Structure prediction request, 192 residues.
Amino acid sequence: MSRRWLSPLLAGALLVAACAEPPNKELGQAQGAIETARAAGADRYAADEFKAATDAFKQAGDAVNDRDYRLALNHAIESREHAQNAARDAAEARARIRGDLERTMAEVAALLAQANTKMAAAERSRVPRRALRQPQQALAQVNEDVQKAGAAMQSNDYMAAQPALNGVKDRIEAVIKSLDEMTTSQSTTRRR
Prediction:
């Protein structure tokens, strides 16, 4: 009968002994996971999950200061899990945004080629230079925005590339429409 009591007593003693010291190993793992998540861009691409990780880590530190090592252990494990999730979410978000940006850049390149062709046709049909000034300026601004987006993408800063491409396709399509109208009116005038 004494052996039946020995096993639960030993398990209880081990649990008390395990929680008698700060969970340094788990705190170190949590800190490492947070640093890995930050390096993966989780602070930008998975901000909510990253904040949950850093909040849980802070709570673990507060629990250590209060000598509540069991609570510190729970918060450290929670922090590590949130940080790992944040790193995974950040990688997925970066890949999704990069794919979206690459598709947008391809569409913009095709529209720019079309706009440049239309511009050349307008110049050949002798549309007045003064009438072409606004479309030329619009295309110059579009080219500048596309170059900014491309530079941001080259440096893997996809969050900065997105705003540079906002509305670019609409602006190019407006230029194409304007050029079409100019060349149509110019050819109608020449026929008379």
Summary: Residues 23-92 form one domain. The longest helix spans residues 69-124.
